[in-house]
C-alpha cells in the first residue's frame, strides 16, 4: 500500500493519520507529502494498524505517542498524568511576569550578599510541565517545589525533569495540597504558588468526551462535587505558605471564574 492510499482512505482526520504514519515511519510529516507513491512495508502497516485501533478506542494521540508539547518543550506523558493543555502555557507566562516584576533584591544599595531566595511552589504538578517550563525559563537561583498527591504522576514528573536537565532544581514532593510544606514547618516561604488543580465537578465529569473521561486520570480532572473544593482548600492553606506580597496564579475554567487573589 502506498502512503497516499493510507492518507486518502483513513477514517481519521488528516492531521491525526499524518502524525501516526510519520511516527511509525520515524520521519517528519513533510516526508509523506514528498513521497506519496512510496510503498509501505507490511511491518509498517502492521504497526500503524495497532496505533489506529488504539485511536479508534479514543485513546488520545499524545498517550499513543507518549509525548506532548508544552511551552516549546516535549514532555513524556502516559495515562498516569493529565496531558498538558495549550491554555496552561498562559499560567507559565504569568508566573514569569510575576518573577520579573519582583522588587529589586538589593534595594538600590548595590551588591547584596544575602539575597532573598525566590521560591515557587507548583501544586498538582502532574507531568511536571509547569515546574519544568519555569525552571528552564528562570535563573537557577529560583527554588522550585512541585507537589502532587499521586506518586505515579511524580514518577513521570521526575523523568521529565531529568530529561530536561532540571532534575536537581526541582524538589518533587508527594502530598496533599500544601500539607508537606506546613509539616516541614517552612512557613511563609513562597513568593509564588502556581497551580492547575482539578476543577471539574462530578456532574460535568460524566459528560466529558470519551478521549478524556476514558483515558486521563480522574484524580487529575475532578476537584470535588462542585469542582472548586480543592482550590478552596488551597487558598486557605496558602495564607500560611506565601510571603507577604506573594501571589497564587491558578487555572480555572473561564466559565466558572478566573482571578488571581493576592495575600499581603
Ligand atoms: C489538572 S492536573 C494538572 C497537571 C499539570 N500541572 C498540568 O497543568 O498539566 C491536576 C494534578 O493535581 C493532582 N492532584 C489532585 N488532587 C491533589 C491534591 N489534593 N494535592 C496535590 N495534588 C493533587 C493530580 O494528581 C494531577 O496531577
Summarize the structure.
The chain has twelve helices and nine strands. By secondary structure, the protein is an alpha/beta fold.
Give me the secondary-structure topology.
Blueprint (H helix, E strand, L loop, with lengths): L2 H7 L4 H12 L3 H6 L7 H15 L4 H5 L2 E3 L2 E3 L13 H12 L18 E5 L5 H9 L5 E6 L2 H13 L6 E5 L4 H5 L6 E6 L4 E2 H5 L3 H4 L8 E3 L4 H13 E9 L14
Parallel strand pairs: 3-4, 3-6, 4-5, 6-9, 7-8
Antiparallel strand pairs: 1-2
The chain binds S-adenosylmethionine.
Molecular structure report:
Keywords: Methyltransferase, S-adenosyl-L-methionine, Transferase. One of its GO terms (biological process) is methylation. Pfam families: Methyltransf_31 (PF13847), PrmC_N (PF17827). Residues 118-250 form the Methyltransferase domain. The protein is α/β, with parallel strands linked by helices and 264 residues long. It has two domains: 3-56; 84-250, Rossmann fold (3-Layer(aba) Sandwich), CATH 3.40.50.150. The protein contains twelve helices and nine strands. The chain has helices at 3-9, 14-25, 29-34, 42-56, 61-65, 89-100, 129-137, 151-163, 179-183, 202-206, 210-213, 229-241, and strands spanning 68-70, 73-75, 119-123, 143-148, 170-174, 190-195, 200-201, 222-224, 242-250. Helix 7 links the parallel strand 3 and strand 4 (143-148). Helix 2 packs across helix 4 and helix 6 packs parallel to helix 7 (129-137). The chain starts with a helix and ends in a 14-residue tail after the last strand.
Report helical residue fraction: 40-55%
Instruction: Note the total helix count.
Output: 12
Distinct ligands, ions and cofactors found in the model: S-adenosylmethionine
Biggest sheet strand order reads: 5-4-3-6-9
The share of residues in extended strands comes to 15-25%
Helix and strand sequence:
HHHHHEEHEHEHEHEEHHEHE
InterPro entries: HemK-like (IPR004556), Methyltranfer_dom (IPR025714), N5-glutamine_MTase (IPR050320), PrmC_N (IPR040758), RF_methyltr_PrmC (IPR019874), SAM-dependent_MTases_sf (IPR029063)
GO molecular function: protein methyltransferase activity
Domain Release factor glutamine methyltransferase N-terminal: 5-65
Organism: Candidatus Woykebacteria bacterium RIFCSPHIGHO2_02_FULL_43_16b
Amino acid at each position: 500500500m502506498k502512503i497516499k492510499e493510507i492518507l486518502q482512505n483513513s477514517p481519521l482526520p488528516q492531521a491525526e493519520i499524518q502524525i501516526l504514519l510519520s511516527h511509525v515511519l520515524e520521519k517528519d510529516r513533510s516526508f509523506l507529502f514528498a513521497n506519496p507513491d512510496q510503498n509501505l512495508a507490511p511491518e509498517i502497516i502492521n504497526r500503524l494498524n495497532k496505533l489506529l485501533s488504539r485511536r479508534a478506542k479514543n485513546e488520545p494521540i499524545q498517550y499513543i505517542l507518549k509525548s506532548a508539547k508544552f511551552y516549546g518543550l516535549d514532555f513524556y506523558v502516559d495515562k498516569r498524568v493529565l496531558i498538558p493543555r495549550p491554555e496552561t502555557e498562559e499560567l507559565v507566562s504569568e508566573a514569569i511576569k510575576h518573577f520579573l516584576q519582583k522588587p529589586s533584591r538589593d534595594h538600590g544599595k548595590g551588591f547584596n550578599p544575602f539575597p532573598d531566595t525566590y521560591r515557587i511552589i507548583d501544586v498538582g504538578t502532574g507531568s511536571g510541565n509547569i515546574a519544568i517550563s519555569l525552571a528552564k525559563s528562570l535563573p537557577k537561583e529560583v527554588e522550585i517545589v512541585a507537589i502532587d498527591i499521586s506518586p505515579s504522576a511524580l514518577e513521570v514528573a521526575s523523568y521529565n525533569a531529568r530529561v530536561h536537565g532540571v532534575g536537581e532544581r526541582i524538589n518533587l514532593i508527594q502530598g496533599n495540597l500544601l500539607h508537606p510544606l506546613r509539616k516541614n514547618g517552612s512557613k511563609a516561604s513562597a513568593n509564588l504558588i502556581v497551580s492547575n488543580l482539578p476543577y471539574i465537578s462530578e456532574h460535568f465529569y460524566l459528560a466529558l468526551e470519551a478521549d478524556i473521561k476514558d483515558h486521563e486520570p480522574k484524580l487529575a480532572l475532578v476537584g470535588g462535587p462542585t469542582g472548586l473544593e480543592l482550590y478552596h482548600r488551597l487558598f486557605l492553606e496558602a495564607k500560611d505558605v506565601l510571603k507577604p506580597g506573594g501571589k497564587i496564579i491558578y487555572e480555572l475554567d473561564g466559565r466558572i471564574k478566573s482571578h488571581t487573589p493576592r495575600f499581603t
